[in-house]
Design a protein that fits this description.
The chain has about 325 residues and is an alpha/beta fold. It is about 45% helix and about 15% strand. The chain is built from ten helices and eight strands. An eight-stranded mixed beta sheet has the order 7-5-6-4-1-2-3-8, sandwiched between helices. Helix 1 links the parallel strand 1 and strand 2. The longest helix is centred in the last third of the chain and has 31 residues. It starts with 9 loop residues before the first strand and ends with a strand. About 0% of the residues have low confidence.
């Protein structure tokens, strides 16, 4: 498991969106920390459609430091796509992600590397003492509690951008939409091992956070996507078939009761005319439940056929457009 070279090559992937004030200081902090280590490394900035001077500053940094590479998007595609682009261009044995807002401390990078070298496939940061307002920390705690309950993965901070991966982890998972926060869930579903370490959360020095409460709403919706992907993507009949079985069972029970009562009514054992099946609105409900249950089964079977027969390649299906790459 820990069969990396003595000093594995490190790739740092940093999505950037309008961080012109932070970039030079961030680069200095990273190089100061990394230059103390024996590892060779590269820094990959992914400009996710910045509208300020971020790209020009990254170009200047690149001209002075050839270990820096810059990927520029044509417009803003979102953090997941920025990660995807960075991961696809990363050459490192270990890939480390952090935000570009100076809230992660690069001096903690050796701790992540040590955990990977101990045999873990992915290491997740835990901002145990966040430097943020209550209106940000409380929704985050609730979000993480829900994700832990649904996924059964005991991590404290799924949203923390400070993470480290073996390159084979990222080669086997696909992220899009807002799924970047669920990389630990996707990795765990593949059998990769996870570790968690406490990290500092430094106060923001420049600008304001670009993420509001709506990201938690999107995150909850994406949780449904991840749950389906990790549990039922290969066996949709296990989900839809179960729903169909329950609905059909309800419909069958209603029809069985009505049929039995109707037979007893015909033989005169039940004299009230209300037991005549044809006068009972419940008959329509029973038939409807049976039809709905059958449709669930049909969708599940079609899903099984689609999954079984699908052999399409995922190459060339990236959800972003690169304008230029400085390397």
């Amino acid at each position: 498991m820990a069969d990396l070279s003595q000093h594995p090559f490190i790739s740092l992937v940093l999505p950037v969106l309008n961080e012109e004030e932070s970039l030079k200081e961030l680069h200095r902090n990273i190089t100061r920390s990394m230059d103390r280590l024996p590892n060779n490394y590269e820094i990959i900035f992914v400009d996710d459609g910045s509208t300020d001077q971020s790209f020009e500053i990254m170009r200047t940094i690149r001209q002075a430091d050839k270990r820096v590479r810059v990927i520029q998007f044509r417009r803003n595609f979102g953090k997941s796509e920025a990660y995807s682009a960075g991961f696809s261009h990363a050459r490192g044995d270990i890939i480390i992600t952090m935000d570009a807002d100076l809230q992660e401390d690069p001096d903690e990078i050796p701790v992540f590397i040590k955990k990977i070298e101990d045999g873990y496939d992915m290491v997740v940061g835990w901002r145990h003492s966040r430097k943020a307002e209550m209106d940000k920390t409380m929704p985050s705690k609730i979000f993480n509690l829900v994700v832990r309950f649904v996924t059964r993965i005991s991590l404290h901070d799924f949203n923390c951008p400070y993470k480290a991966y073996r390159k084979e982890v990222l080669a086997e998972i696909d992220i899009h939409g807002e799924l970047h926060r669920y990389i630990p869930v996707l990795a765990s579903s593949k059998g990769f091992t996870l570790a968690e370490i406490k990290v500092k959360n430094l106060p923001r020095k420049y600008g304001r956070s670009k993420y509001g409460a709506e990201r938690y709403i999107r995150g909850m919706l994406d949780l449904l996507t991840v749950t389906f992907i990790t549990r039922f993507a290969k066996r949709p009949l296990h989900l839809l078939g179960l729903g169909g079985l329950i609905v059909c069972a309800l419909g069958f029970t209603v029809l069985a009761v009505l049929t039995g009562a109707h037979v007893l009514y015909k033989f005169g054992l039940l004299t009230d005319r209300s037991w005549n099946m044809h006068d009972r609105p419940m008959l329509s409900l029973g038939i409807l439940l049976m039809l709905v249950g059958t449709q669930f089964f049909s969708l599940g079977l079609l899903g099984e056929l689609f999954v079984t027969g699908s052999n399409r390649s995922r190459s060339g299906q990236q959800g972003y457009s690169v304008k230029q790459i400085l390397e």
